[in-house]
Amino acid sequence: MHYSSHTNQSILKALAEQFQAFHKTLGTRSVASANTNPVEVEFPEKGMTFDELNRLISEQVRPHLSASNGGRYWGFVTGGANPIATYADWLVTTFNQNVSKGGDSIASEIEQQALHWLCELFILPKTFNGIFTTGATAANVLAAFTARQYAGHQQNIDVTQSGMTGLDVAIFSATPHASMVKSLGFAGFGQNSWQKIACNPQDESMDVSALDNALTHCKCASKVVIASAATVTGTDFDDIAAIAALCKKHQAWLHVDAAFGIFERLVNGESGKTRGIELADSITLDCHKWLNVPYDCGVFLTQHMDLLKKCCDVSAPYLVTPENTLSYMSMGIENSRRFRAFPVWATLLAYGKHGIANNINSNIRHAKQLAQWLHHSDKYQLLKPCELNVVLFKPNSEVVGISSGECMANLNASGQVLLTPGVWQGEPIIRAALSNWATTDEDVTQVISALDAITSKKEKQGSKNT
């Protein structure tokens, strides 16, 4: 199959039909697919025609996709793809730019522009710069690399060139995200290398006095502190300003994992829960969460671009970049990179600061609507006041006789919502994370009805058994 006027029209027509068919069912299809078996087709000796392939997708792929792009996918912290970002992402594939280095395309400059606008959106100083990554995990990997290079610099070791032999580092955190722990392993520190700092009572945020004590008594030559701007379960924020002051005192590197928590800044500004994040050495954020662009879009920001470049740069004749041009291959993991900044750039332009903030506030309002219902219900227990977009709850087992795991499994099997588990204060719970721009009042009402139906059914079963 080759590009031609006829081929182009066929592809655009099929794309429009697939888009319409999928989107018109988002409100009615099961949020989590009940059928995840592989497609029943053999690898062919001769390729299919485009019509055959498109028919296979329509019949055996599309019906079994989740409705993760819809308003009731409340697992993890998953945004949807807003219409502008969806369009821009189509263009990313159409344009197929390799944003590895500048000098031959405007794409590199657009990525820089998008990064500067994100810093402006989050009220960060112009000393921050960075790179778009595949997601928060890749951004956290870069954070670990850069912190490692910083520690080496303190000890006169070029880690990138010479390795970690002799490097003496202590890493401190209270409730790091799993991707951060994974990244410490990738960077050679080891997943078990970090030292646990106590949390504040009934909270996942870091006890600053415990950190102060740990840093004061630490004998290691270098220190790294990993702070959280919204922990994954409790949505708790470390006191970044106080932690930054301690890091400055002890010459420790401060990384803030703010994958979705940094968006709180659009609600409460510089004096809110993220106060002090502008003092961090590096920050991770995730655009395919609360900015609602398609997957494959995280961001790593740092105030030490020289260290990042030392971590990632490698010389080869065919990779030589002309002077005064951007070289993203010298700032990140990949050499070849897709134009993933474009949906962000388009979203920032189309929605502006107010439009993005309105989407954030809408999710917070819907989360509080759910939390209020749970708080007043005798069948469920709200485990923590909802301050942002995550709701922690469990069924009241004394009243309805159902565990969190059974309740969540029944809810997800109903097809009306997808929720994911968590652990709060040592016990299994259910976690609802509302971060999709498309969530409506009707979606919340539908989920509340599903919650009520699950416990009512269990009560009826219990009465029959007695």
Structural account:
The protein is of the alpha/beta class and 466 residues long. 44% of the residues lie in helices and 12% in strands. The protein contains 16 helices and 11 strands. Helix 3 (83-95) packs antiparallel against helix 13 (341-376), helix 5 crosses helix 7 (178-186) and helix 13 crosses helix 16. The radius of gyration is 24 Å and the shape is globular. The model has no long low-confidence stretch (mean pLDDT 95).
Short description:
This protein is an alpha/beta fold. It has helices spanning 5-23, 50-61, 83-95, 107-121, 136-154, 159-162, 178-186, 208-217, 240-250, 265-268, 287-290, 305-312, 341-376, 397-400, 404-413, 441-465; strands spanning 129-133, 169-173, 194-196, 222-228, 253-257, 282-286, 298-302, 380-382, 390-395, 420-424, 427-433. It starts with a helix and ends with a helix.
Total strands: 11
The main sheet orders its strands as 1-7-6-5-4-2-3
Structural class: alpha/beta
Overall pLDDT: 95
Number of helices: 16
- Please report which band the strand proportion falls in: under 5%, 5-15%, 15-25%, 25-35%, 35-45% or over 45%: 5-15%
Give a quick account of the main beta sheet: strands, pairing sense, barrel closure. Answer: 7 strands, mixed
State the order of secondary-structure elements, H for helix, E for strand: HHHHEHHEHEHEHEHEHEHHEEHHEEH
